[in-house]
Amino acid sequence: MPPSPTYEAKVLQELHLWQQEMLKDPSLLNRLSRSMQQKLNSYIPEKVHSAITATIKQMIRAVLFGAKHTTAKPAVHSSLEAREAAILERIEFYKKTAAAEGGITGAGGFLLGLADFPLLLGIKLKLLFDMAALYGYSVDDYKERVYLLHIFQLAFSSQQQRREVYLQMVDWEAQKQLLPEDIHQFDWRTFQQEYRDYIDLAKLAQMIPIIGAPVGAVVNYKLLQKLGHTAMNAYRLRWKENNALKNSLPPHL
């Protein structure tokens, strides 16, 4: 069933505004913040960077190859409006789950706060797996899992990096044919550094006694909200491109 004209128009308008946001040049503040963060990163020994990259790579690969076994099969024969109604419910569920997790680890001080990182990462990736299935995509396909990593980067990167990643996602059906067959060739270093830089300040406050619990709950809730919004528009972009592709086919195909 096709989406109603009214809903389709609403989706296209929201998508257009999101695309403009993704393509914005970094502001002066963005550039200064990025420059400062890069300067701080330059003081970190290469061995530490390599260790963090390897840890995050293994952590995400474990979730990527584990979560697919607990993800529903791709949805079929459903309108975009119906799919997105179900998706909004899943986003709300994961926002509340992440908030509860952040509150618990935030109340536990520094050591328990460290556990928040892998737990929250798992919740975020599981949301993306569920959303992919609801939009009708199979995460059994390695290239669909790479698309999830791109969405993750869009949500949690600097404006400059976000713009670069977005351009890699436009016309994804053609872009994915250029992907290497091995996920080890993914740019894990940039991925972990951008993600770390994006959430460092917010998550550090979670480790402060007394305020850690409420800060952890609010920050996690907001992070899942941002990820859900980003993922919806990333899949809307593919929906729009796929429709354009179908409409351009000769009538007999």
From TrEMBL:
InterPro entries in the record: EcsC (IPR024787)
Entry superkingdom: Bacteria
Pfam families linked to this entry: EcsC
Protein name as annotated: Uncharacterized protein (DUF697 family)
Organism of provenance: Rufibacter quisquiliarum
